[in-house]
Write a structure and sequence with these properties.
Layout lengths: L3 E14 L2 E14 L3 E5 L6 H8 L7 E6 L2 E2 L5 H11 E5 L10 H11 L4 H14 L15 H13 L5 E5 L7 H16 L3 E5 L3 H4 L4 E6 L2 E7 L8
Parallel strand pairs: 3-8, 3-9, 6-7, 7-8
Antiparallel strand pairs: 1-2, 1-4, 4-5, 9-10
Helix pairs in contact: 3-4, 3-5, 4-5, 5-6
Bound molecules: adenosine-5'-diphosphate and magnesium ion.
The site of adenosine-5'-diphosphate has 12 residues, from strand 1, strand 2 and helix 1.
Length: about 240
């Protein structure tokens, strides 16, 4: 049996503003094994991004517990959170989140800058990742000169450069047409084949049908959590 890379127990999260509070996650239990490819579905506002941000240690939770690779993750300093994020997590977002005045290579290299890798070395490694994603010829182009699909491939290369154990993708195909979405899903599948756990938030059935396990959030709880019977190669 593979080890559990993510485990949450009775996880609660509310947002507070003034006298109002919004209870978004109401006691979630979830275990994801290393190497799984999972989608998290649910309508807009159901708490998908909230959950993903907690898993990525970008946000804290109120009650319950979260274990990442067996380590208990609770309220921690930003320095410590950043250390765990660097070591474990790669993020991919709907809006790509590329830096507009940096070229493709520099965008991909950015995580290594935060790890104090010198410029020559990090650009060299960035080029290798661009090459893997078929974008070497675009290394010196700015994001504004690239298509949506190319931008998302750059963002995936950037998420991979720090050799994460888990990729968290929040609506990665939300801004792409269906052909390009399929290409991005193929890339994420290839990434998953290398052993990296991939968790994709989406509200599109077309996207979730390409993952091995589908988790549905509704009214703050997990409504269902099923193996995707259309895909036989379940980990
Ligand atoms: P989803 O990604 O499924 O669309 P979210 O996790 O973004 O849902 O949001 C869940 C609910 O929490 C929504 O009602 C949203 O308006 C609210 N929410 C999200 N982020 C915040 C925040 N930082 N402060 C207050 N409310 C928030
Ligand atoms: Mg969202």
């Amino acid at each position: 049996m593979k080890n559990s890379i993510i485990k949450i127990e009775s996880l609660h999260k509310s947002y507070f503003s003034g006298e109002n509070s919004l209870h978004v996650l109401k006691g979630l239990n979830l275990e994801i094994k290393e190497g799984e490819m999972v989608s998290i579905m649910g309508s807009s506002g159901s708490g998908k991004s909230t959950l993903l941000n907690i898993l990525g240690i970008l946000d804290s939770y109120d009650k319950g517990s979260y274990y990442l690779d067996g380590m208990f993750i609770d309220d921690m300093s930003e320095t410590k959170a950043a250390k765990y994020r660097n070591r474990y997590i790669g993020f991919v977002f709907q809006s790509f989140n590329l830096i507009s005045f940096k070229n493709a290579m520099e965008n991909v290299a950015l995580p290594l800058y935060y790890q104090n890798v010198n410029r020559k070395k990090r650009n060299e490694i960035a080029l290798q990742y661009l090459d893997k994603l078929g974008l070497k010829d675009w290394a010196h182009h700015l994001p504004s000169e690239l298509s949506g699909g190319q931008k998302q491939r750059i963002a995936i290369a950037r998420s991979l450069i720090s050799q994460p154990r888990v990729i968290l993708a929040d609506e990665p195909t939300g801004a792409l047409d269906s052909k390009t979405s399929n290409e991005v899903m193929e890339i994420l599948k290839e990434v998953n084949k290398t052993g990296i756990t991939v968790i994709i938030v989406t509200h599109e059935e077309e996207i979730s049908s390409k993952t091995n396990r589908i988790i549905r959030l509704r009214d703050g709880v997990i409504e269902s959590d099923k193996v995707n019977s259309k895909i036989l190669s379940y980990v």
